[in-house]
Amino acid sequence: MESLNLVSRFFDAIRKDPCISTTHISIYMALVFYSKDQPAADPIHVFSQQIIDICKISSRSTYYRCMHDLHAFGYLQYMPVFKRNKPSQVLLIAM
Q: What angle do CA 75, 33, 92 make, to 5 degrees?
């Protein structure tokens, strides 16, 4: 139920934001979907390839650009880890 509220608030916020594209939305929804399988921990721990596979993005650079955009726009906190064997941390922010 919490994820439904998060999605609803996200769509309310992006309705007025011309900077958000369908790729941003796809990544955010993939993160919400991925977070439901993790324990109720904040932040969630993700490997970029897992999210890329869920949202069908073909380029890693697109993923990283959109993650940095979402972070800069205040929709999430992104704490990248640049080691292949350690996941990055993402905190989904309720608007």
A: 25
CATH code assigned at 81? 1.10.10.10
Q: What is the secondary structure of 26-61 as a DSSP string?
A: HHHHHHHHHHTTS-S-SSEEE-HHHHHHHHT---HH
Q: Among 11-25, 31-45, 73-87, where is mean pLDDT lowest?
A: 31-45
Give the pLDDT band (50/70/90) at residue 1: very low
- Write out the two tokens for 65: 């650009």
Q: Which residues constitute the domain of residue 68?
A: 2-92
Cis peptide bond upstream of 43, omega within 30: yes
Q: How many domains does the chain have?
A: 1
Bridge-partner residues for 79, per DSSP?
Answer: 89
Q: Taking the mean position of all CA atoms in its chain, how far away is CA 37?
A: 14
